[in-house]
Amino acid sequence: MYWYQVFQDGPEYEARKKKGTFTPPNLSMKDLHDAVPRHLFQRSTTKSICYVLRHLMITYVFYLSATGIDDLTVLIGNHSHNMIRTIVRSALWISYWGWQGIMFAGIWCLAHEAGHDALSPYRFVNTALGIFLHTAVLTPYFAWRATHHTHHKSTNNIERDETYIPPTRKDFKLPDGKVAVRMDYAEVLEETPAFTLFKLAVRQFLGFQLYLIHNRKGNPRYPAGTSHYKPSSLLFKPKHRPSIILSNIAIITMILILGTYGYRCGWSSLWAYYIMPWLFAHNWMVMFTYLQHSDPTIPYYRKDQWTFARGALATVDRPLFGWVGRFFLYGISADHVAHHFFVSIPFYNLPEVTEAIKPVLGECYNYDSTPVLYALWRSFTQCTFVEDEGGVLFFKNQYGEAVMQPLTLGL
Description:
Layout: H1 11-19, E1 21-22, H2 29-34, H3 45-66, H4 69-77, H5 82-115, H6 123-136, H7 141-153, H8 182-189, H9 193-214, H10 241-265, H11 267-293, E2 300-301, H12 308-313, H13 323-328, H14 336-341, H15 350-361, H16 372-382, E3 392-393, E4 405-406
Parallel strand pairs: 1-4
Antiparallel strand pairs: 2-3
Helix pairs in contact: 3-5, 4-5, 5-6, 5-11, 9-11, 10-11
């Protein structure tokens, strides 16, 4: 890849965009299930635990390596200019935060697998692994699992999905699309690139926790005060409440552990070794979860047009970070279409599942090799709003323009 291709759309995206029209698919679920060999559904507790232990070991090695950064830079400082020492020290710490952030995101991905009972055929093993791993990165396991299951049952259903719900024309108080002109949109939606970048940074590093705390960017059907930490929240059914309380106790325990570490080892150590990687992990997590379903060429549906298969197909597979995404993030972006159809198949079998179902999906399979940072900027700046009416909806940009249109009349 040439350097300038980092800022270009992938050929798969260009092909969908060039097509310009979209007919909602009517997929045979039987054909899809028949295409997947039965052995791929098998889950191995031993294999999954080995993956978990390997991941935790590498995470610990990164931590141990970081404990030597300051000593190394002091040694460098004895033989070079202070500016060089500062540059080297900053580069090493940023590198640690970024890579350890990927490791923390990988811990979150393994807990995500546990939440789908995909690590083991035994529910108690999945629960134990899930609550340990998610709590380690300050995610309430049972609360997030409950809303994530709702997401899978309602993917890209604008009325029922849980997060990244598109705002509508009415939300922005835009004039009717039949009379609005480019200037009307610009007056309401246009902003400077610097401010857009600031909003993107806030969402990337803080957005997931804000979603958990007060449903930021969650479905607007929920009332003010909605929170993943509130057992009585309408996010949950009454049967979920005891487990939500258990999640909260686990999170409080983890915060106390971190506080004890900070008190004994220094708050700067807590910040450097845990908090900063944790923030970087949120950046990676928000990046891949947002790009899985938010794209100018991917539809949302209202209830009269939504089906489970259509929602599952409103998903984009991306080769996120190449081998790094495969090895450390367990292919969470590379095989996300297959995951939406077969949630309990373990991640290590999903590449084969993806290849098995591609012939059945045909043109319905969405793949995009656009470099991830450019894809993130493209979606963040072009996926601005959807219309208030219609059964099949595509994002419009800040000038009221969409790259795709539903083909079937009445949609």
